[in-house]
Design goal:
Layout (H helix, E strand, L loop, with lengths): L16 H19 L3 E6 L2 E6 L2 E3 L1 E6 L6 H10 L4 E3 L8 H9 L3 E6 L19 H18 L5 E8 L1 H4 L6 H25 L5 E6 L4 H7 L6 E4 L7 H8 L5 E5 L21 H16 L5 E9 L5 H6 L9 H9 L12 E7 L6 E2 L3 E9 L7 E7 L1 H4 L5 E3 L2 E4 L2 E5 L5 E10 L5 E11 L14 E3 L26 E2 L6 E20 L4 E9 L6 E6 L6 E20 L6 E8 L1
Parallel strand pairs: 4-5, 4-11, 5-6, 6-7, 7-8, 8-9, 9-10, 10-11, 13-20
Antiparallel strand pairs: 1-2, 2-3, 12-14, 14-18, 15-16, 15-19, 17-18, 19-20, 21-23, 22-27, 23-26, 23-27, 24-25, 24-26
Helix pairs in contact: 4-6, 6-7, 9-11
Length: about 575
């Protein structure tokens, strides 16, 4: 902690002039040391190192995910892993407890400053770095303010300006304009760097981008950066050769790395990225660290991704401890960083997981059986949980538990989701000791087969309203709900009630109805029949609809059959992929 201004007034009196002189010589050095570390990039071309108060410092880090409020809970664990550094993406008034807690545990922080459009492929907030002087001036005032606030905090290792914005600018601009914006952005990073150096000469400044495509811009436009920084996952072992071929004259750190991401893996049989196994992810961290340490004198360390606790789509892919439970990757990083693993109890390990039957044709709402082979290294009792995620249907990150029946020998039976599309199914194996193994597979959920003939298919259909504009996947006409295709749909106006009816051509009997709803579904509706299209009889009423596939027996007779929606399940209209009527 910084030395109090009153500390000097506690000196005993009277004192001799010699003692006073000695104190005068000593106090500045003591205050500087107490006020925070002096961090430098030292050495020469290809022989650099980071030093903290004159001692060599290799960044053995992780990106930080928990809330600042949980810093006291997790910092001791990070320290036990051999971690000496964490990385953040933003620095503001809330950062002090994180810096303080990190310092108290012997950990330092690569303190980030966020610039738009940050986050690479998922970036947002386009800025014109050629003309938007208001934004640039605001950042030039904002960032140095927090540097001034925290420069004497012993938890600070260095400042990091921006995250993947050179890549992210491609979402805002193209062609020559994109090149001009990238030059302007990296020039602005240099302006920020000079401002930070003026406030704080004792901590280096870097800037992160995705892969090394940003480095030529930094080389040309940001000479004041002390070192470069790069986010690279499966390709991290190629950074060394890219640095050598680029003729760069600054060292670098890797600010995100780990197992292969969605963008780096092949698609599975259902056309979605095949998530690596727990073992493959652990190997990804080991490989990354080996390649980083293999670039001696240039790569000064890494903050690998990610010390996070979220238990969602991204959390399962990258977090070392989702919901606080430790993965194989957690122990791989701990071993790489020199943490003591001798007494560790480690997670259950999947050797296989398969979907029984055809994973490309899983009937909505019907039984789905998963066959797993899992062992625990210490022989601990394994408990199972099955979860589902609809990321590739509606971009949801959430994992929804499915009630599972343990059939023995690692076989688990659940009810498949009732919304068609590709789902990810997760099996979570815990050992009761705070460890978890997770394996995932995709399944393509389809409407369940129905015996009999769909007498509505291809027949004339009308509706109370329909979206006729050529927008997105529309026009979405009434006829699209009876064309036998589950990728075309009818969509109504955004009001209640709305109906869709089909003319069977003659009076016919039916016994079963299947509705395949789009995201905009009916929470309440009736199935009705009519002989003349004017007078209707209700054969089925639904008051608790939840979308997906509604598949039920409903007996009736008539020339016309309609679904009459009385309450929407969303703020949009009613939307049906298919309205099947079976005899």
């Amino acid at each position: 902690m910084p030395r109090s201004h009153s500390a000097g007034r506690r000196l005993a009196a009277p004192v001799t002039a010699g003692v006073l002189a000695a104190c005068a010589l000593m106090l500045p050095g003591q205050q500087a040391h107490a006020a925070g570390s002096v961090v430098k990039v030292t050495g020469s071309q290809g022989h650099w190192q980071l030093t903290v108060d004159g001692s060599p410092y290799q960044v053995k880090g992780l990106t930080w995910g928990p809330s600042v409020a949980d810093a006291g809970k997790y910092m001791p664990d990070l320290k036990s892993m051999g971690v000496n550094t964490i990385r953040t993406w933003g620095t503001d008034a809330s950062s002090k407890p994180l810096f303080d807690t990190a310092a108290a545990n012997g950990i330092k922080v690569i303190a980030g400053f966020w610039l738009q459009p940050g986050g690479g492929p998922g970036s947002g907030g386009c800025v014109n770095y050629l003309t938007d002087t208001t934004y640039k001036n605001n950042m030039l005032a904002e960032f140095p303010k927090w540097v001034q606030t925290y420069k004497d905090n012993p938890g600070v290792l260095m400042w990091n300006v921006g995250n993947e914005s050179v890549l992210g600018l491609q979402n805002c601009y193209s062609g020559d304009e994109l090149e001009k914006q990238r030059d302007a952005y990296t020039t602005f990073v240099n302006d920020v760097t000079k401002k930070i150096h003026a406030v704080d000469p004792n901590h280096p400044v870097t800037s992160t981008d995705a892969w090394v495509g940003a480095w030529p811009y930094y080389k040309k436009n940001a000479p004041d950066l002390d070192l470069y920084a790069v986010n690279s996952y499966n390709a991290v072992c190629d950074v060394k050769s890219a640095w050598e071929q680029g003729g760069y004259t600054k060292p670098y750190i890797v600010t995100e790395t780990g197992p292969a991401g969605e963008w780096e893996v092949p698609d599975d049989a259902n056309g979605v990225p095949a998530e690596p196994t727990d073992q493959a992810k652990a190997d990804g961290y080991r490989k990354a660290w080996g390649c980083i340490t293999g670039h001696q004198g240039v790569a000064l360390g890494a903050t690998m991704f990610h010390y996070g606790t979220e238990y969602d789509f991204g959390g399962i892919w990258f977090n070392l401890l989702p919901a606080g439970e430790k993965r194989l990757s957690y122990y791989a990083v701990k071993k790489a960083y020199g943490g003591n693993t001798s007494g560790d109890n480690t997670p259950p390990v999947f050797s296989s997981m398969t979907v029984e039957g055809d994973a490309s044709k899983v009937a909505a709402g019907r039984d789905l059986t998963l066959a797993t082979k899992v062992t625990d290294p210490e022989g601990d009792r394994i408990s199972y949980e099955v979860l589902a995620n609809s990321m590739y249907i509606d971009q949801s990150k959430e994992l929804t538990p499915l009630k599972a029946t343990d059939l023995g020998s690692g076989r688990l039976k659940v009810t498949a989701p009732d919304k068609p599309g590709v789902w990810k199914i997760y099996v979570k194996a815990t050992d009761g000791r705070g460890n978890v193994g997770v394996e995932t597979r995709s399944v393509r959920v389809v409407p369940p087969p129905v015996s009999g003939t769909n007498i509505a298919q291809g027949k004339p259909a009308t509706a109370s309203s329909q979206q006729t504009s050529d927008y997105g996947d529309c026009p979405c006409l009434a006829s699209s709900a009876v064309d036998g295709k589950n990728d075309t749909r009818w969509a109504s106006d955004w009001s209640d009630p709305q109906w869709l009816q089909v003319d069977l051509g003659s009076r016919q009997s039916f016994r079963h109805v299947q509705l395949n709803w789009e995201t905009s579904y009916a929470k309440a509706y009736t199935i009705q029949t009519s002989d003349d299209g004017q007078n209707w009889r209700t054969v089925r009423e639904v008051t608790d609809g939840n979308g997906g596939v509604d598949d039920f027996d409903a007996s009736g007779t008539g020339r016309y059959v309609r679904v009459n929606g009385t309450a929407r399940g969303t703020g949009y209209g009613y939307s049906l992929y298919e309205f099947g009527v079976y005899n």
